Automatic annotation (TrEMBL):
<feature type="compositionally biased region" description="Polar residues">
    <location>
        <begin position="147"/>
        <end position="161"/>
    </location>
</feature>
<dbReference type="InterPro" id="IPR008978">
    <property type="entry name" value="HSP20-like_chaperone"/>
</dbReference>
<dbReference type="InterPro" id="IPR002068">
    <property type="entry name" value="A-crystallin/Hsp20_dom"/>
</dbReference>
<dbReference type="Pfam" id="PF00011">
    <property type="entry name" value="HSP20"/>
</dbReference>
<feature type="domain" description="SHSP">
    <location>
        <begin position="29"/>
        <end position="140"/>
    </location>
</feature>
<comment type="similarity">
    <text>Belongs to the small heat shock protein (HSP20) family.</text>
</comment>
<dbReference type="InterPro" id="IPR037913">
    <property type="entry name" value="ACD_IbpA/B"/>
</dbReference>
<protein>
    <submittedName>
        <fullName>Heat-shock protein</fullName>
    </submittedName>
</protein>
<feature type="region of interest" description="Disordered">
    <location>
        <begin position="134"/>
        <end position="161"/>
    </location>
</feature>
<keyword id="KW-0346">Stress response</keyword>
Length: 161
């Protein structure tokens, strides 16, 4: 029985804490949900790379869909070539579907498939409205506030004129 400690993932992967919890619970379900294997790597302050081992699949066999906060990677089993006879088949070629729950403001920047590894670039993009703003403090008088007049004051000003 393997015991895996995911606490380093909780500490280092900003935006993936929910994903780490789901990964930890999925591990307890067994190896059936472990295909295809994948890595999540933090490559910068707000950038990540999700790498999946998908040997035997071509770009036309894989669909990557990002909808709201869910990233879905699905692979259709490649059609076996006629005339091939395997004595041992250790490279899995079965269909798969993996779903990843992404934290808020995580966007998929692109996907590449090379040497049997599918790499998805992920980036945390916080909208300007949600970023903290530095408010400059100035010395001197406070800026003049516009005075709000009531309807009674407006009538009095109109009669005086």
């Amino acid at each position: 029985m393997n015991t895996l400690d995911f606490s380093p993932l909780f500490r280092t992967a900003i935006g993936f804490d929910r994903l780490a919890r789901q990964l930890e619970s999925a591990r307890s379900l067994g190896d059936a949900q472990g295909y295809p294997p994948y890595n999540i790597e933090k490559t910068g302050e707000d950038t990540y790379v999700l790498t999946m081992a998908v040997a035997g699949f071509g770009p036309g066999d894989i669909d990557v869909v990002a909808r709201e906060n869910v990233l879905t990677v699905a692979g259709r089993a490649p059609q076996p070539e006629e005339g091939r006879s395997f004595l041992h088949r250790g490279i899995a070629g079965r269909a798969f579907e993996r779903r990843f729950v992404l934290a808020d403001h995580i966007v998929v920047e692109g996907a590449t498939l090379e040497n049997g590894l599918l790499q998805l670039g992920l980036k945390r993009v916080v909208p300007e409205a949600l970023k903290p703003r530095q408010i400059p403090v100035q010395a001197g008088k406070p800026p003049a506030q516009p005075r709000i007049t009531t309807a009674n004051e407006q009538e009095g000003q109109a009669q005086a004129a």
